[in-house]
Each structure stands twice: as C-alpha cells, then as structure tokens.
C-alpha cells in the first residue's frame, strides 16, 4: 500500500473523535464556549442521551455573519492571545477554550446549525451537514436572551456509524451530560443553568450572588442540601497560587471519589496530583475505602500551568507541581484542624432514621392473641421492644429500662455543665457508650472510638516534639511470628523506636519487645506486634516515612485506648468528654467512623410523637 493523503472529511472525523468522544464531551465544549462569551444564562436541551439532539443557547456577546463562517473552520479561535512578535501565545491561556476545534469537530459528525446575534446586529444562521459548510442567512433568533448564540447538533455520530456502537444507553449518556454540566456550573456560580432531557427538567440552577456565600449556595444546589452544614470553607495563598473551596468534615464521606471536584483557573480537571493531595490530607481521618467530599479551586498564573496536554483539556501540568500539592494539603489540614470535634450532621440524621418506628403488619390471628412477657422480662421491657407508635407511656418505659444503664452521679454537677459542647455525662450503656446531656440535645459517645482518636492525637504530638515517653518492660515480651512477618518488623525498628516501641530480633521468627510507649499503659504486646506486621505488609514500601508512622500510630492508638466493655466512673466519662472538646479531629476515630452521635431534643420529641 502506497502512502497517500487522507481526505479532508476523514481528517475532520478523526480529529472529532479526539475531541468529541461522547455526547457529554460535545456539551462540555459548547458550554465552555458560552462561558467564554460572557453568558449569564445557559439553556440546554437533549434527546436520546444527546445522540438525537443537543441544543445549547446562551446570552453571550454573539457573533457576526463573518465570525460564523470562521467558527465552523478548524483551528479558528478568538481566545488565543498574540505575543509581542505577532505569534500565538500558548503560555497565557485565560479562557476555557482556545484551540478552535469544538464546533468544527461536532459539525464533522452531526447535522449542526449555528444561530447567533450580537447586541448591535441582526441574527444569522449557518448550517453544516457532516462537514459540508453552508452560507450565513438571516433568521429569527431564539437564544437565551436578546443576543447570544444557539448551537443545535442533531444525529450525533451519524457520519461515523462505528462510533455509535460504543455509546452507552441513552439514560447513561444523559447522566454523563448532567455530570458534565454540574461541574461547569460549579465553577460559574454567577451564571444560571437549565438542562432539559426530552422536556423533563434535570438541572435548574439560578444565578448566585458573587462571593463565598453564593459559591456555597451553588455547590449545595448540586451536591444536595446536606453539604452546606457539613462544609468547611478555606482560602489560602502562597506566591502566585491560591487554593480555596469547601471541604466536607471527615464523617461526611462517600464510598467512591465521585464527589471530589477539582478546578484549575475555572477549568474542571481530573488530575492525579490533586487527587493524591486530597487523599494525603484526609489520610489520618478516613479508612482506605472511604473518600471525602471536597470542592477545590486552584488559581495560578496562566504561564505556571499547561492546559494543552490533553485533547479534551481534562488534565493539566503545573510548573511547580509539588508546591501546588503542598498548598492543597496544608489548606485542607488547617481546615480540618479548625473543625475541632465536629462531626457530620448526617450522622444524627442516619441514627434517627434507624430509630423511627416501623410498624409491622399484624397476622390475621393477632386479635385472638394476647402477648405475655417471657420469663424474666418485665412488661415495661417488653413494651420497649415493641414498635413505638406514640409518646404516651415513654417516660414509664425509660424509668423501668434505666437499670441497664449506669447513671452518673450529677449531685455535684456545676450549673453550667450542660453548656459544654458535649454536655455532662448521665450514664454508660452496656459498658460501651457514654450518654451525655446538653442544654438541647442527647449525645451518645462510643468510648473506644473516641479514646482511640485522643491517644492517636497525643502520639502524633509527642512524635512531633521528639518522640513519646517509653516504659521499659521488667521482662522482655517474646512474640512468635512467621519468618516473613518478623523480617518486616525488623526492617522498621527505627520507625518503631521513634514511636516508643523498642524491639529486636530474637532469632527464628521471634521478636523481643523491650520498651513500649508510655501512652499505651498496659497493652497487649503480642496483639500489637502482630497487627503492626500486618500493617507494614499492607502498606509496603510505597508509603513514605510519615505515612508509615501515621499508620503505625493508628494501630498503637487502637491498642492503647479504652476498650468497649470497660466500666467508667462519672468523672472518667466527663473527663473523656472534656478532652474530646479540646482535641482536634475527635469527631471521628482513626478509621473514619463517628465517635459520637448528637440527637437534638426537638428531633427526639418528633420521634416519639410529642411534636
């Protein structure tokens, strides 16, 4: 086969495949064009998952007939600046689009019409059918305002049938379009967005006022109302870079990273560097299979970021990548530090959902059956286990049920004790949960999870100040392991010694433990060493020193904390509450689980029918 030049139509369709891989990519490009044109309202309509119809109308500045003719040509743009020598300057890109590929790429694989009107001119239309360009002609303008642009693409990919085979179902493609619009809308809160799918309104976001409040309102409109009370604002700058946005408290987390939104100079991106920075910032607070909810905006000089490294502009490259990563990690960690012991409001909401009575249907013979308490169970206790359908009799039930809880002596309670954020201890249930009372709520604390976080924070603080105090064992503890596990432990003796755990090789898979961290008190040395061997095997050499030390700290804290099943005195319970209030991040344990649940009195009253 001899070498030959491809036809112009083939070249255009191949180029379109790089830019427009699916309907959502076409929508993204068209909406970016509208935002670059200064649109304050963008209306979108789709059908058949975007394959049958994509329509994007805006109220931007619009185009003249001459500009319409240029807009459908490849590599024609109004967005790329020119340097002092008259050359196109790819180092100062301040717009979302700049290549001049979007409209001609879409037009190459669809039937496209482009209507536009400037503020001072008439409306004009130009049509393109699978790359065959028409001429501008006058038309009645039906855009989103008195001026602007309306792009309509029908039968997407009809000119490339092979591409259609790789499309998902219309519902899946429509969902991808909605996700793309949400990301774009999140970065432009002052622009209103409307998306309709075959007449059904999918997204309707009004324009928000400038400033952080408007930005948070837009984000909450996309992520849901639960994000607003669980969002922590941050804004930090260094040199020419600025990082700002909103971070969810650790207990407001998800099973995947789909609700992590990252923007660079207003451009939605998926960047491994930024994703890794988020994971590193939350490493102390979440289990490996849980992911935080964050919205992060990075602003930097255009010359310090390369947005021209991906055909769809979905990835970027920073001149100082480590500096940007460090700025993000610092911003998130400082924000989480300010959160103190705060936990997500959704924790209480989930608990209330579990407590709401579910009245089961009664069997047909129920009217002939009179329930009697089993041997050893009082009628009040039986009533407690039955579905609660109202508030009558609840006080009597609780009074009879109270012996199952250890009630704290409140005789010496100071009048202001209930004003503490976590209140005053009233009892201990099943030797595991501390029940406290505030002025307007009931607080239930998991004593093991809470103390685990407290010990962990103490160990980190001690490590930062030179290492925790050690206690020498009178007789070294010998721990038997398999040879591989023992070897892993021996390789990390320096790391472990920095944390107060001194051990040495005792031969044939045995480890001799001579000193332990004083913070742990009396601990299960055998279990601790075995768990540490498992942790080191899981994390391997991929973790840096700090990450390894943090993981080891977490395991030690778990072994050194108050165990479930231990009976606490009233003073111990209140001391635990006060230390939680004074310790950052005490709202969740080292694995990301909440350490306490706070139920407002008003919610409890609604639960039992008093409201």
Short description, anyone?
The chain is built from 19 helices and 26 strands. It is of the alpha+beta class and 611 residues long.
* Mean pLDDT across every amino acid position: 79
Number of domains: 3
- Give the radius of gyration: 31 Å
Structural class: alpha+beta
| Main CATH class of the largest domain | Alpha Beta
| Count of DSSP-assigned helices | 19
First-to-last CA distance:
83 Å
The coarse silhouette is elongated
Beta-strand residue percentage? 15-25%
CATH topology of the largest domain: Ribosomal Protein S8, Chain: A, domain 1
Low-confidence stretches: 359-406, 541-546
Major β-sheet annotation: 9 strands, mixed
Helix amount: 25-40%
User: CATH H level of the largest domain: which superfamily?
Assistant: MutL, C-terminal domain, regulatory subdomain
How many beta strands in the DSSP annotation?
26
User: Which CATH architecture of the largest domain would you pick?
Assistant: 2-Layer Sandwich
Can you lay out the helices and strands and say which pair or pack?
Blueprint: H1 8-19, H2 23-36, E1 41-47, E2 53-58, H3 65-71, H4 102-108, E3 111-117, E4 123-129, E5 132-133, E6 137-138, E7 148-154, H5 161-164, H6 170-186, E8 192-197, E9 200-205, H7 212-223, E10 231-238, E11 241-248, E12 253-254, E13 260-264, E14 267-269, H8 272-281, E15 291-292, E16 294-299, E17 305-306, E18 317-318, H9 321-338, H10 345-355, H11 379-385, H12 394-401, E19 405-407, E20 424-429, E21 433-437, E22 441-446, H13 447-464, E23 470-480, H14 483-491, H15 493-498, E24 502-507, E25 510-517, H16 525-539, H17 545-560, H18 570-582, E26 596-600, H19 601-607
Parallel strand pairs: 1-8, 13-16
Antiparallel strand pairs: 1-2, 2-7, 3-4, 3-7, 4-5, 4-6, 8-9, 10-11, 11-16, 12-15, 13-14, 17-18, 19-20, 20-21, 21-22, 22-26, 23-25, 24-25
Helix pairs in contact: 1-4, 2-6, 8-9, 11-12, 13-17, 13-18, 14-16, 16-17
């Amino acid at each position: 086969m001899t070498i030959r030049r491809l036809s112009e139509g083939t070249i255009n369709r191949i180029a379109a495949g790089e830019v427009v891989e699916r309907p959502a990519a076409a929508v993204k490009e068209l909406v970016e064009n509208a935002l670059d044109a200064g649109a304050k309202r963008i209306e979108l309509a789709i059908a058949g998952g975007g394959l049958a119809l994509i329509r994007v109308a805006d109220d931007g500045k619009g185009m003249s007939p001459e500009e319409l003719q240029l807009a459908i040509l490849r590599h024609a743009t109004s967005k790329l600046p020119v340097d002092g020598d008259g050359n196109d300057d790819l180092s100062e890109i301040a717009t979302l689009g700049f290549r001049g590929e979007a409209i001609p790429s879409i037009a190459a694989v669809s039937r496209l019409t482009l209507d536009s009107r400037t503020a001072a001119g008439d409306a004009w239309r130009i049509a393109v059918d699978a790359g065959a360009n028409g001429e501008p002609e006058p038309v009645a303008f039906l855009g989103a305002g008195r001026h602007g642009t309306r792009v309509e693409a029908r039968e997407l990919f009809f000119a490339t049938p092979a591409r259609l085979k790789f499309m998902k179902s219309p519902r899946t493609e429509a969902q991808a379009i909605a996700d793309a619009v949400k990301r774009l809308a999140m970065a432009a809160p002052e622009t209103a967005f409307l998306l309709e799918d075959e007449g059904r309104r999918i997204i309707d976001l009004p324009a928000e006022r400038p400033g952080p409040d408007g930005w948070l309102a837009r984000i909450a409109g996309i992520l849901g109302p639960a994000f607003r009370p669980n969002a922590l604002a941050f804004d930090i700058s260094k040199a020419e870079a600025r990082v700002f946005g909103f971070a969810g408290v650790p207990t407001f987390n998800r099973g995947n990273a789909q609700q992590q939104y990252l923007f660079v100079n207003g451009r939605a991106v998926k960047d491994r560097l930024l994703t890794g920075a988020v994971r590193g910032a939350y490493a102390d607070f979440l289990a490996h299979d849980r992911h935080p909810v964050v919205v992060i905006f990075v602003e930097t000089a255009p010359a310090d970021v390369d947005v021209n490294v991906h055909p769809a502009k979905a990835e970027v490259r920073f001149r100082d990548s480590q500096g940007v990563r460090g700025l993000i990690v610092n911003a998130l960690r400082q924000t989480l530090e300010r959160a103190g012991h705060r936990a997500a409001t959704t924790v209480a909401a989930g608990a209330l959902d579990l407590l709401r009575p579910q009245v089961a249907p009664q069997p047909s013979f129920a009217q002939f059956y009179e329930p009697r308490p089993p041997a050893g169970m009082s009628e009040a206790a039986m009533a407690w286990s039955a579905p609660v359908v109202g508030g009558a009799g609840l006080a009597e039930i609780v009074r009879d049920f109270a012996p199952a809880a250890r009630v704290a002596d409140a005789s010496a309670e100071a009048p202001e004790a209930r004003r503490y954020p976590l209140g005053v201890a009233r009892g201990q249930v099943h030797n595991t949960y501390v029940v406290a009372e505030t002025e307007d709520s009931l607080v239930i604390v998991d004593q093991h999870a809470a103390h685990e976080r407290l010990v962990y924070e103490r160990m980190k603080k001690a490590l930062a100040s030179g290492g925790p105090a050690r206690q020498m064992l009178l007789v070294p503890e010998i721990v038997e392991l398999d040879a591989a596990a023992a070897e892993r432990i021996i390789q990390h003796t320096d790391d472990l010694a920095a944390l107060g755990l001194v051990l040495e090789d005792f031969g044939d898979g045995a480890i001799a433990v001579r000193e332990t961290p004083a913070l742990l008190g009396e601990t299960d040395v055998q279990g601790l060493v075995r768990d540490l061997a498992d942790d080191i095997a899981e994390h391997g050499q991929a973790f840096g020193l700090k990450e390894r030390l943090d993981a080891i700290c977490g395991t030690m804290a778990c072994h050194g904390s108050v165990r479930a099943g231990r009976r606490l005195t009233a003073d111990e319970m209140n001391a635990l509450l006060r230390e939680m209030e004074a310790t950052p991040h005490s709202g969740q344990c080292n694995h990301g689980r909440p350490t306490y649940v706070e139920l407002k009195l008003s919610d409890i009253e609604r639960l039992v029918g008093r409201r």
